[in-house]
Design a protein that fits this description.
The chain is an all-alpha fold and 125 residues long. It has helices at residues 2-15, 29-47, 56-70, 75-86, 89-111. The protein is globular and about 75 Å long. The model is unreliable at 120-125 (pLDDT under 50).
Amino acid sequence: MKNFLLVLTLLLLFSCEEDKKRPEYIWDEDRFIEVLTEFQMAEAIIRLGYHRTTDSLILNDSIYNAALRKMNTTQADFDSNYNYYLKDPEVLEKMYEQVITNLSERSAELKNPKEEKEPTSSLSE
């Protein structure tokens, strides 16, 4: 009877072990960060009111869909990936830190566009 309980306990322990392999349809972290960055930019457009019209609800969907089209993905794919990464909050937090870094870099680029170098003239006067 002791052996039976021991075997049963071991089976339960090993059967409860999560499979850490990522399904094929889940993007790698870099891809997910890129999509999250675009999605957060769409969110900012909506929250800051740059889209206000009489039919804002429809336009909200259009803004999100434009971001998803730009990243060549669908809402279903995004949702599947988001739900997958949501299961590991520490990893998701690190990815959001990178998203914030990406957004900060883009903001800085808009505030301080790189100055174009003036063409040098080879003709002497």
